[in-house]
Structure formats: structure tokens, C-alpha cells
Amino acid sequence: MDKKEQLVQRVLRTAVADLKIREAGGEGESRVITGYAILFNTPSDPLWSDEESEAREVIAPEAITKELLDGCDIKLTMFHDRHLILGRSRQGSGTLSYTVDEKGVMFECEMPKTVDGDKALELVRRGDLAGCSFMFTTRYYDQACVERSANVVNGVTHIVYRIKAVTGVYDFTIAADPAYPDTSVEAREFVGTLKEPATPEPKKPTAEEREKMRTQLSEMRRAAKQSIV
């Protein structure tokens, strides 16, 4: 399969996303957690960082729309554990709701009356859970989906992968320290591939070079027809 056709699944960590428990409208304590699962135009934690280069990702506002999210099956989880489901949105409906604004994707979800739901509420209330990640897919090697830019500062190349198109969103996760991209074998292999130098496309000959090659080819054919004495 051509690299441009390959879908790469990623978990991207956002900055502290101001997770909070919505104020109760009536009697009793609210069980609704709100926050931003996705932040636009906000650099992620480094994909990698060494003496020579550092790379981060940025989600462009046009990459994720409500129409895209409404076509996905999105789970709200805790600690990146797909078994700790706190809410879910299937094709735009369910216990997990979200809105898209100029800042990013904000979600809210009423926590289930389970051990996991109670745990999430208490940890968010205490401020122990304060960050979010989301899992998505895109075509990293397709410039229509991901744009790469780089500049050198004090001898270090700073690389930015700007995600312009996302093909699917699969979960929102709340966690104390959302996972870095190098915490799994698959992610390390992915980063290794990104760090490989791009193979340059073959240079197309100019009209002058093509004419020169045709002349050389004609001379070679005439020489081949001559009799050897």
C-alpha cells in the first residue's frame, strides 16, 4: 500500500484541559464532568526531542468538525483504559455530548453511578485528573492531511506536523498524565518512520535534456546498424 493511503492511528496529548465538574442546577452534587478533549492550534507534547531536533503536532481547526464527530463511535475513558468507559457517543447520540468552537472540542458527560464513575468524579474534583487525550486516525504521509514545517533555533530543528484532516476520532480520555507518543512499540516505530529522511522524488528531465537524450539515442542506433569491418 502506498504510504499516502496508510491510516495511522495516534493518541495525542493536549495541554491541561480545564477539567471540571459542572455546577449543580438543583439539589445534590453534579455528576457532570466537562472539559476540552481537543485543542486547536495548540502544540502537543513532543513526539520526540533530542539534541538535533524536536517535533510536535498541532490540530488545525478545519481538521475536526461536528459532522465528522457525529459519524464516529467515541468512548470517554479514564487512564487510556478502553475497559473504563465513562460515556459514549454513537453517531452523535448517547451519554457523551460535545460541541466544536474556535478553541477546540469541548465535551460533557454525566458520570455513571459506578465505582469508575465515582472515582472519576473524586479525582477531577481534587484536581488529580486534569488533562485529556484523544485517539484519531489520519494519513500522515499525505500532504493534504498533514503539513510538515521546520525551522532551526540555536542549532535545533523544530518540526511541526499540522494535522489538517482527520479521518476518524475514537475516544476522549481523561488522565493525570495523558500518554506520551513514545510509550508503545507501535508509537516508537511510527516516530522512527517520521524521523527517516524523505525519499526525494525523481527529478524530471527538462525539455533540453530530453532532446539531448533523443539525439544520443539516435546516434547509438545508427552506430549499431553500421557493419563492423
Descriptive overview:
- This protein is α+β, with helices and mostly antiparallel strands and 229 residues long.
- The protein is 21% helix and 39% strand.
- The protein contains 4 helices and 14 strands.
- Strands 1-11-14-6-7-8 form a 6-stranded mixed β-sheet.
- Strand 12 and strand 13 form a beta hairpin.
- The longest helix has 19 residues, at 207-225.
- Mean pLDDT is 83; it is low at 179-183.
Mean pLDDT: 83
First and last CA, distance: 54 Å
How many individual helices? 4
Q: Order of strands side by side in the largest beta sheet?
A: 1-11-14-6-7-8
- Characterize the largest beta sheet: strand count, sense, and whether it forms a barrel: 6 strands, mixed
What percentage of the residues does DSSP assign to strands (E)? 35-45%
Apparent shape: elongated
Helix content: 10-25%
Given helix and strand content, the structural type is alpha+beta
Let me know the number of strands. 14
Rg measurement, Å = 25 Å
Strand/helix succession: EEEEEHEEEEEHEEEEHH
Low-confidence stretches: 179-183
